[in-house]
Amino acid sequence: MEWGMANRMAQLIQSDGHALFLPIDHGYFQGPTRKLEQPGKTIEPLLPYADALFITRGVLRATVDPTKTKPVILRVSGGTSVVGKDLANEGITTSMEEAIRLNVAAVGISVFVGTDYEKDSLLNLSKLVDEGERYGIPVMAVTAVGKELEKRDARYLALASRIAAELGARVVKTYWCEDFEKVAMGCPVPVVMAGGPRTETELEVFEFVHDGMQRGAIGVNLGRNIWQNEHPVAAIKAIRAIIHEGATTEQAQEIYDAEKNN
């Protein structure tokens, strides 16, 4: 691995081999999502506990202080919205030159395996990997499911994750599912877990994060289950303890309860 690539990967994945990515890229297809109306204010108290920020170039430039940030994973795919015909019909929206200009640690792109736009999204990933490898910038592939949440099973996610790795993604972001070890073991590059829609309780989040870590994930890429929580700092501290300190779900709940009462 070239020095630049290795350096950027080390910025993302910490010395313990684990990572907590904080995504705030939701607006690229959802618009001003609840509690992300002012992303700069949302992330300010959370940044100290995140290992990297997953974000679009527009929000990065407009809301993140370049002197007080964390490594950036730049969202470079898009072109669709929740009111459009098909979320899977994404293209590459941001050039690698722009990524270099913004001094990012990685770029991220969604792939839509099993949709009408499967080939397009996978070729977009391949093109991005070619450009990223040329400049030493890792690509994180996101195994998106659009509005079809029933696709979140081990068979589908293992397929999508493996294809993303085969095409050159250095990291894969995918969903937690039952039998998650089948996903992680079948993917030869690091896997981080996505959160999806906010869960009913914090404990549900702690349980799936802990389970996924035990079954082969290296960390998480969690947004709404952190910053839509009524106590976001408590939530990210508890999740960080699971990822980097090996905390149990019960210990994470104790951290959350103690922090929210401060």
How does the SSE layout of this entry go?
Elements: H1 3-12, E1 19-23, H2 27-30, H3 39-43, E2 52-55, H4 57-63, E3 72-75, E4 77-78, E5 91-92, H5 96-101, E6 106-111, H6 118-135, E7 139-143, H7 154-166, E8 171-175, H8 181-185, E9 191-194, H9 202-214, E10 219-221, H10 224-227, H11 232-245, H12 249-260
Parallel strand pairs: 1-2, 1-10, 2-3, 3-6, 6-7, 7-8, 8-9, 9-10
Antiparallel strand pairs: 4-5
Helix pairs in contact: 9-11, 9-12, 11-12
Short description:
The chain is an alpha/beta fold and 262 residues long.
Question: What do these coordinates show?
Answer:
The protein has 262 residues and is of the alpha/beta class. The protein has a single domain (3-224), classed as Aldolase class I (TIM Barrel). It is 42% helix and 15% strand. The protein contains 12 helices and 10 strands. The strands form 2 sheets. The protein has an 8-stranded parallel barrel, surrounded by 6 helices. Helix 4 (57-63) links the parallel strand 2 (52-55) and strand 3. Helix 9 runs parallel beside helix 11 (232-245), helix 9 (202-214) runs antiparallel to helix 12 and helix 11 runs antiparallel to helix 12. The longest helix has 18 residues, at 118-135. The protein starts with a helix and ends with a helix. The mean pLDDT is 95.
